[in-house]
Amino acid sequence: VLSPLKDGIVADWDIVDSIWEHAFRECLLIDPKEHPMLLAEPSSNAQQQRERAAELMFEKYKAPALFLAKNAVLTSFASGRATSLVVDR
């Protein structure tokens, strides 16, 4: 099993692309062109990483919309709170 991450940063976008392709076609059984996408990202994610993810979603998968959300914010919302302190380790 190959991991596209190295030290929490995407190092191999081809593997990420393969994972997303498998998720859309084999697991979720959806056409990404028909669904807005929400991607969770670490708080320390670099602008270059965000741009590459957006590029893949818009140019290859033709997603109609994309929102990149911080993991900590999604954790807060999942617990039913609009404000919180999230400790990420």
Number of extended strands:
4
What do the pLDDT scores average to?
Answer: 94
Main sheet characteristics: 2 strands, antiparallel
The strands making up the biggest β-sheet line up spatially as 1-2
CATH superfamily: ATPase, nucleotide binding domain
The helix content is 40-55%
The assigned structural class equals alpha+beta
- What string gives the helices and strands in order? EEHEHEH
Structure characterization notes:
By secondary structure, the chain is α+β, with helices and mostly antiparallel strands. The chain has a single domain (5-78), classed as ATPase, nucleotide binding domain (Nucleotidyltransferase, domain 5). It is 42% helix and 16% strand. It is built from 3 helices and 4 strands; from the N terminus they run ββαβαβα. The chain has helices at 13-27, 47-60, 71-78; strands spanning 5-6, 9-10, 37-41, 66-70. The strands form 2 sheets. The chain has a two-stranded antiparallel sheet with strand order 1-2. A two-stranded parallel ribbon has the order 3-4. A hairpin with a 2-residue loop joins β1 (5-6) and β2. The longest helix is centred in the N-terminal third of the chain and has 15 residues, at 13-27. The chain is globular. Pfam families: Actin. It comes from Trifolium medium. This is Actin-related protein 4-like.
